[in-house]
Design brief:
The chain is of the alpha/beta class. It is built from six helices and five strands. Helix 4 links the parallel strand 4 and strand 5.
């Protein structure tokens, strides 16, 4: 799977570990930044990853900032992105199953790499459910048309 990854300076080290882990599983990771030691603004990286995922059907995104919240909000501003803050395995799994999330957000100040790895595994092992969930995802997508 193609995975687009991005972080601000606070999420840099965790993002580096995530990229290494995903590549060890055979996924292709595209790093949207930031670089080590660089002061960075999370909206830029959330948007960059969001744009890449929205334009590549079947791709996944991973974004990291201090809390996971700010970068998730930025990613979700991009049409076609459904980013969930994956604070636990359940949130990651059901984000994919029920909400068809295509981007996961993590908080480097709040989560260990071990916790993040469990969330990624739960997400990757889950499938998107249809039925009422597909109908709800369509309703979420329709909100992209709101002014």
């Amino acid at each position: 799977m193609e995975v687009h990854c991005g972080s601000d300076h606070r999420g840099y080290e965790l993002k580096r570990q995530i990229v290494e882990y995903l590549e060890s599983l055979g996924h292709t990771c595209i790093d949207h930044g930031c670089s080590a030691g660089e002061q960075a603004h999370y909206p830029e990286y959330g948007a960059s990853v969001g744009r890449a995922v929205a334009s590549a059907p079947g791709a996944m995104g991973v974004v990291v900032c201090g809390s996971g919240a700010g970068i998730a909000i930025a990613a979700n501003k991009i049409r076609g992105v459904r980013c969930t803050v994956a604070w636990c395995e359940h949130a990651a799994e059901y984000g994919r199953r029920h909400n068809h999330a295509n981007v996961l957000a993590f908080g480097a100040d709040l989560q260990t790499f071990t916790q993040v790895k469990r969330c990624i595994d739960a997400y990757l092992n889950a499938g998107e459910e249809g039925g009422r969930h597909e109908q709800r995802v369509a309703m979420i997508n329709a909100l992209d048309e709101d002014p």
